[in-house]
Inverse folding.
């Protein structure tokens, strides 16, 4: 099982390196990924530090696509311009997605340590799932918005201001998780 | 541990009975709770079948309160009337919450069975957490909305129509989980 684990971890780290080299990864969360990946028995497989998103929501998942996203705070103008210049076939949804992190653990014991770290950090949305050989922990923030902006006329200064403050909150919660991990994993 | 488990399960079932007698529980999900609770090694501790919600969102969780909720499909009039007659101190948020279910399992093996049931049912949001002695599985739908309706003028016929169809979707997903559980737990 150890050999299988080493191979799994090494493949996951290669994918992450590739994503970093090609600017496909979200650098705001690298400090946390690097910390977790430096520990024996853990590897991160996907993550997002939080984002503002305009989603073209089709009748099925296959037809749904990201029209525009911001991984950092947005300005009202950039969001309003994007909404006004949208001419896709599906209704536009406005979303704020909180941070999300997937960690794979080698053993149930390794997984349980992460669950305790989440609890100590005061997180609400996290949990372990089973993989074929390993244990997947999904960790997620709760600072979010999601609504069909195509059906609404909003005060966009306020909506974007609120969204930016939700991003700040999700970044602090990510930091809390990091500090809690540092305390426990040493 | 078995005695401790029996006591824990019996306390949880008493709470549920109390909630049912006093109409504090959400009857649309009773079929599922009763099924899970009939199985050895499992007990449900909280649940919601899905709802439409108007939330008065204060500066902290303590000051936030539910202004109005619908556990069944809503009419545009009832929602619009509620919004128009709100005069609380905090901005009003409009939410559709998907179904949520908490199951406590006696052993890790019991918990892993539920995780497999969730996966087989095609659910996305679920996971195991640790309790002092037992294992908590949180299961949640993904059909949701959440936004500050105080900042928006929406086409409420469409928003309520969409919300009602999200409720229908979350009810079907609950049913899928139930069917998957029946196949596995027998």
């Amino acid at each position: 099982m150890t050999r299988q684990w080493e191979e799994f971890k090494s493949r996951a780290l290669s994918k992450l390196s590739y994503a970093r080299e090609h600017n496909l990864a979200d650098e705001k969360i690298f400090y946390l990924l690097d910390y977790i990946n430096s520990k024996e028995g853990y590897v991160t497989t996907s993550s997002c530090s939080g984002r503002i998103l305009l989603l073209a929501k089709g009748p099925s998942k296959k037809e749904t696509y990201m029209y525009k996203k911001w991984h950092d705070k947005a300005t009202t103008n950039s969001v309003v311009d994007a909404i006004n210049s949208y001419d896709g076939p599906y209704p536009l949804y406005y979303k704020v997605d909180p941070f999300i992190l997937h960690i794979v653990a080698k053993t149930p014991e390794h997984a349980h340590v992460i669950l305790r770290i989440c609890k100590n950090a005061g997180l609400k949305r996290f949990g372990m799932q089973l993989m074929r050989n390993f244990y997947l922990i999904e960790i997620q923030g709760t600072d979010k918005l999601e609504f069909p902006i195509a059906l609404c006329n909003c005060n966009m200064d306020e909506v974007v201001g609120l969204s930016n403050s939700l991003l700040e909150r999700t970044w602090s919660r990510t930091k809390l998780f990091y500090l809690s991990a540092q305390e426990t994993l040493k």
About this structure: The beta strands of chain B are 42-48, 51-56, 65-70, 92-97, 100-105, 125-130, 135-140, 145-148, 152-154. Chain B has a mean pLDDT of 96.
